[in-house]
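Name: Putative ABC transport system ATP-binding protein
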Amino acid sequence: MTNPLIQLEDVQLTLGEGRARTEILRGVSLRIDEGETVAILGASGSGKSSLMAVVAGLEKASAGSVRVLGEDMGALGEDQLARLRGRSIGVVLQAFHLLPTMTALQNVMVPMELVGAPDPRARAQAELAAVGLAARENHYPAQLSGGEQQRVAIARATAPAPRLLLADEPTGNLDAATGARIIDLLFDRVAAAGAGLVVITHDPAVAERAGRVLRIADGRLAA
Ligand SMILES: Nc1ncnc2c1ncn2[C@@H]1O[C@H](COP(=O)(O)OP(=O)(O)OP(=O)(O)O)[C@@H](O)[C@H]1O
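Structure predicted for Putative ABC transport system ATP-binding protein:
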């Protein structure tokens, strides 16, 4: 039997106070196994990014259970969550969260250094080359276009060869040809590593490549 990479049981997420209080996830249960590729589709505001944040341990579920890579995410502290992400979970968010004072190379390399990954410089250089940014290694985020910043964020997520890759609209800022190349790269990387991929997308071509498609509507998975 394959091991579940992700196992959610009746996950609820409620954020905000008073009149801003919003039930964002309303009882989500799902299981994703090692080696699976899953696309998440849904209307704007349906809860896709919030679901990904809960799986990444960036948001704590308000109720229910979240197990990722065998860890009970609700029981881990911030440092333990950060270490788990650094070693085993690659995350590409809609806001890329690149560090403005670091070059593209440093943005990809430093997280690997922090968890003691082997050959961080060589791996960072190879991954930046794979996303077409070999010539931009020494540029700072402010000197890069939105699409280039997105590709640095993708290289940062894939370079440590994570067991689980989570990507929120990874081709959102890219032209069609570059987007297709990046999607090839994501699927190739996870296939080579036997890793799992969860990708939020509005692009039918991306959804088509995934082994499974989940639809979310109003904080619930649609049947
Ligand atoms: N901190 C917060 N407090 C209250 N409501 C929030 C908070 N963060 C997000 N929301 C609401 O939760 C809902 C789900 O947001 P989420 O970003 O998960 O949607 P999404 O499906 O990823 O949308 P999009 O496709 O537009 O990125 C939205 O209605 C949003 O306004």
